[in-house]
Amino acid sequence: MKINASDIKKEIEKYPDKKGILIPVLQDVQAKYGYVPGEAVSLIAKELSVYPIDIYGILTFYAQFHLTPRGRHIVTVCQGTACHVMGSKAILDYIAKILNVAVGETTKDGMFTLERVACLGCCGMAPVVMIDKDFYGGCTIQSVEQLLDKYRGVVVKK
Amino acid sequence: MSTKILICMGTSGISAGAREVADLFQKEINRHKLSGEFQVVKTGDRGLFRDVLVDIVTPHLGRVTYECIKPKDVPLIVENHLLKGEPVNTLLAGKDYEQFFAKQMRIVLANCGEIDPEDISDYIAHGGYTALRKALGMTPEQVIEEMKRSGLRGRGGAGFPTGRKWELARASKGNEKYLICNADEGDPGAFMDRSILEGDPQAVIEGMIIAAHAIGMTAGFIYCREEYPLALERLDIAIAQARQQGFLGKNILGSELSFDITIKRGAGAFVCGEETAMIASIEGHRGMPRPRPPFPAEKGLWGKPTVINNVETLANISHIINKGADWFSSIGTEYSKGTKVFALAGKVKNTGLVEVPMGTPIQDLIYGAGGGMLKKKVGLKAVQIGGPSGGCIPASILDTPIDYVTITQTGAIMGSGGFVVMDEKTCMVDIARYFLSFTVSESCGKCIPCRVGLKRLLEVLEEITAGRGKEEHLTFLQEMGTSIKESALCGLGNSAPNPALTTIRYFIDEYLAHIRDHQCPAHVCTPLVKFTVIEENCTRCGQCFKACPSGAIKWQRKELAHIDKDKCIKCKACINACDFKAIA
């Protein structure tokens, strides 16, 4: 991906006080590009006078950051306690099977990235699947299949 | 008084379609040209998960609650209830709704579902910011004394007395002191902080300003996890409005207090809920804890005295200031005062947030607010309290009252208030394995007991759930678990063995069934499940057939089901669907 150096500078200049801004800047970059590209890391390192290795240390420590491009839709299957008790592991395995990807991977057509999360905090509607920013509660193996079809743009037969 | 239409629009309400319902109400009201008389209020979630909840408050009918409202119901309600004054009886909230709220004591959650969280004037109209005015009229010492007398203890997990924490930080030397609100609710199974931030963010902000006055803080941070987009959005709005009204900024309400709040978005690390790890994260580093002392109250954020309080703790502050320490300490038990919010979830009929006085027996939550088990034919096995740091409490001792001291005696901890109900279809060895896999992946790797020890515990639990367990594994789990508890650096490691230790303590039979008989009594551990139909248990109902996604089950009306092993993908959908223990 082509990274615009002035865009990165702009993201940094948003913060007048430079104390503790590294993580927020990385979050902004990820929001913009969908992941944190290697070129951006070098640019941020230079601008903030930190070593790239420290930035990679942060990027690999926090679950939120991604170093590779992701799919058009992010399918996040909650693996919280309530979801686990309500069978979320089977749902995760099933989605992995029908999308033919492992957790963390993107489908070949670039449509979906499958991810797991420790807890989305919607335990009352377990098991929960989040696609992009939308939450879906009370999921079953059958319902997730239809859900994915909806995002693929396939009309679901009633 | 105009008529109010209150619509629950927290994360769960919105996922059930509350936004469409609210828009439609507004549209219908506009269509009938009644916007002067009727006001649509978009509130946070009130706690119960019942799709879209709508309350209509009219002067002559009082308050009427509708549940599970779909967009198609809206014109009917507008026509009958709003225009003719006749409630639509078929859509009214049922007995479950009443039972859910009957025995609650809502202090922290009082405003959730009542006020518009995006409108500070609604908060003020409900008594908001009166406590701040009162507190500013008191000396900082008086405020701290009031907090100490109230007996409030931190609601985030460890239960440290809040007043004492404030006193320590006040006594620390330095001109710059920081306050952090811990909204990094990482415990799987807990969601009260999210609901409070979505439903009543000003209460947390008011609590923070009062704390700032008492301790002498210069700046505050709210560390909120990125997984809560709606909470972050509403906090942003709430802080801007508080600033506009002069509750944040220089010389608050004409006093000498100057204080402002910045939001810090967490980046997805459970360990950042630990105080020193959170401080490292705000400073822009990997969120790794450090040894204490020095405690943050002496040396915290950027080396300055820092107090970290949990969301629910801060939401209690204004109530204590307004109604007094005596009132607060009259609620609860000898060593645990006030109320606690529990996140009721799992295999229970009504799920959601329940606020009860400390000392309420565990079973009251399940059979009272919870309305009993989800499936009548599948009995209760255990309750998991306190998330990955907590433990599983068996059905036999559910008369245990919930307070800091008694819960700790059971081997669990109060934690943040996660409360997951488990039935006979839950395997306790699998639950221990599940929690260990969570803590292993969330361990920061700094200290060896946590990094290596937890991994060893997990490996052994994986052996047992795969049917390769040995009896000496049990001794190993107990010895290793106990030594990790004693030697790990921070709270994560200190408490991570609890789920394994409590399940061994209370459910040794299940471990032995896995090890000696190579059986998983709950049919959860896939390698130990044979995926065959037990003829004498099968009622020929066909539930398994309907649930199977791979067409592996052959069944016809009134005939025994049969599983085709070649087509079976071992997803266990059939086992979950069967109420008769007929698939093993």
Structural summary, described in words:
The complex is a heterodimer of chains A (about 160) and B (about 575). The longest helix of chain A has 12 residues, at about 20-35. Chain A folds into 2 domains: about 5-60, Arc Repressor Mutant, subunit A (Orthogonal Bundle); about 75-150, Glutaredoxin. In chain A, strand 3 (about 130) and strand 4 form a beta hairpin. Chain A has about 160 residues and is α+β, with helices and mostly antiparallel strands. Chain A has helices at about 5-15, 20-35, 40-50, 50-60, 80-85, 90-100, 140-150; strands spanning about 75-80, 110-115, 130, 135. A 4-stranded mixed beta sheet of chain A has the order 2-1-3-4, covered by helices on one side. Chain A contains 7 helices and 4 strands, in the order H-H-H-H-E-H-H-E-E-E-H. Chain A is about 45% helix and about 10% strand. Chain B has about 575 residues and is α/β, with parallel strands linked by helices. Chain B folds into 5 domains: about 5-95, Glutaredoxin (3-Layer(aba) Sandwich); about 125-330, NADH-ubiquinone oxidoreductase 51kDa subunit (Rossmann fold); about 340-425, Ubiquitin-like (UB roll) (Roll); about 430-515, NADH-ubiquinone oxidoreductase 51kDa subunit, iron-sulphur binding domain (de novo design (two linked rop proteins), Up-down Bundle); about 530-584, Alpha-Beta Plaits (2-Layer Sandwich). In chain B, about 40% of the residues lie in helices and about 15% in strands. Chain B has helices spanning about 10-15, 20-30, 75-85, 95-100, 120-125, 130-135, 140-150, 160-170, 190-200, 200-215, 230-245, 275-280, 310-325, 325-330, 360-370, 405-410, 430-440, 450-465, 470-485, 490-495, 500-505, 510-515, 545, 575; strands spanning about 5-10, 40-45, 55-60, 60-65, 180-185, 220-225, 260-265, 305-310, 340-345, 350-355, 380-385, 390-395, 420-425, 555, 560-565. A 5-stranded mixed beta sheet of chain B has the order 10-9-13-11-12. A 4-stranded mixed beta sheet of chain B has the order 2-1-3-4, with helices on one face. A 4-stranded parallel beta sheet of chain B has the order 7-6-5-8, sandwiched between helices. In chain B, helix 11 links the parallel strand 6 and strand 7 (about 260-265). In chain B, helix 6 (about 130-135) crosses helix 13, helix 10 packs across helix 13 (about 310-325) and helix 19 crosses helix 21 (about 500-505). Classes of the chains: A alpha+beta (about 160), B alpha/beta (about 575). At the A-B interface, helix 2, helix 4, helix 5, helix 6 and strand 4 of A face helix 1, strand 9, strand 13 and helix 17 of B.
